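To whoever is on call:

I kicked off a structure prediction for a single chain this morning and the downstream step that reads the tokens threw a length-mismatch warning. I double-checked the sequence; it's 417 residues and nothing unusual in it as far as I can see. Pasting both halves so you can look.
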Amino acid sequence: MIQHKYYILILWLSLAFTAMGQEAMTAHPKEPVIEDSASFLRASLMIAEPTHQHIQSSFGHAFLRMQCPSAALDYCFSMESGEYEDFLDICTGNYPNRLVAVPTADYLQPFDHEGRTVTEYALNLRLEEMQHLWRFLDRTSLQGLSPYHDYFHHGCSQEIMRYLTLNLDGQLVYGDAAQQHGNTLFLLGNQLLPANSWLHLPPSMLSTTDGTDRQLTDDEKTAFPCIIPTLLSDASIIDADGSRRPILKDEAPIIYPPAQHYAPNTAPPIYIWFLLALGVVLLISLLGVCYRVAPVHTVCNVLDGSLFTLYQLITFGTLLICLFSTLPTTSGWNWNYLIYNPLPLLIWIYGKRHPLSAPRRANLYICYALWLTAFMVIMFIVGGHFITEQYLLALTFTVRCLFKAYEYRHSTNTFNP
């Protein structure tokens, strides 16, 4: 259907240009927009607000809307996979993606059902640019699936912005607004997440140096759809003759509110739960030191088993995602490997076969507590790696290691590590 309407569009535009005459077809580049181009074509950037219901929509969604009012054509072009992927698929890039063209009325319906507001920003493009853009989008939508998708470098918003800039007559230049946000994927992503989102923790565990250390260019910041309007608020198109024009038209955005907005997430900030976990570990550890009775020992053993299991889940979960990921942001060197690695498991297995004395066990716990502390201090000094939840979790392991070292130093009747 899109192909037939596309041919109708080309025929209509050809007739329109003929009627406008040769002079209009060779308009001087300094003209920002052909006077009545809006009656033929209109291009808009569409931003759907973030939602907590789907991981891949945590930063919103961006797509383009192309309209030809005189030919009654109105389509949205969007990067889609066909369904919502789970966390593992997103982290490994193991799902297909493609550009699709859907009638606008049909495409906006799911956002209304999900309770998500969609905002439309009119693009300040010339008629020829909109022609080229629509033709490019139409061809791209017929190319089929891309088997692996890079959410962090080729997500919906970055691809849409790339398609847009490829079809400009000039160069898109960002202004000061692009400097208001963080300069790495790691910092920018965590800055944009609400305080009560559990997604604060995975980036701090899974981000490799591509996410934590590599400085983003202004156009790479468009990986997060929700900030694109801010990035473009003072962005300009510089034409070949040096003239400038804003990328967005000087008109109020059009807002499409849902019939019923989804209920906001009113849970407390995530760091509160990590503070509570740290408090529980500290309390149980103090009880274990002060009251050496069987029930308390049992609780301490359960705590140690739980923390050890959690540690191993983080370790092997991180390693598995790294091994199977096709994405540079989750594959490669991760600073967390310095503290989350199989070494404690190997020491535990060795200790089962070759029992260690209490002083040696105490020394091992002290060494690891010092190593955790040094890691936190160094990462904080380096800058750009600090996430409250991650540090609280590392501090929880540190506190328990120090108490275990104290127990082995001051008692010969201890429970298992």
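Update from on-call: the warning came from a stale cache, not from the record. Cleared it. Sanity check on the structure: Confidence is low (pLDDT under 50) at residues 1-36, 413-417.
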